[in-house]
Amino acid sequence: MEETKELLERLNDGAGIPFKVCLDVGHAPHPGDRDPYRWVRELGKASPIIHIQQTEKDHSRHWPFTEEYNRIGIIHGEPLLAALEKSGAEEAEIVFEISHREAWGTEFRIVQDHIESVNYWRQFIQA
Known about the structure:
By secondary structure, the protein is mainly alpha-helical. It is built from six helices and three strands; from the N terminus they run αβαβααβαα. The protein has helices at 2-12, 36-43, 67-72, 77-87, 104-107, 110-122; strands spanning 22-24, 49-52, 93-96.
């Protein structure tokens, strides 16, 4: 966390155009600090784009936000948006980073999984 803040400070020192970060809540940002909400609280203001995926701690699963995966996953709407608000961010794009592996068992769920993911996030994000 501190290294990222220090890097942003150095990059922006005298920069004509501000450098920002793209946070990705599903990737473990640092082996010693894998709390995705802390990363959003601390760096959300410097992140105009945030990638979201349902995942488990210590993994990068790229799961959809379906009832099945939301039960076992660690990314949830209320705490993510609360962390973003606490960061002081005035605006951010929340972008799905959902991936379906090339497997017969998931191939026919892709569209439905995306619909369910959109419906899940609609309860938290107002257009």
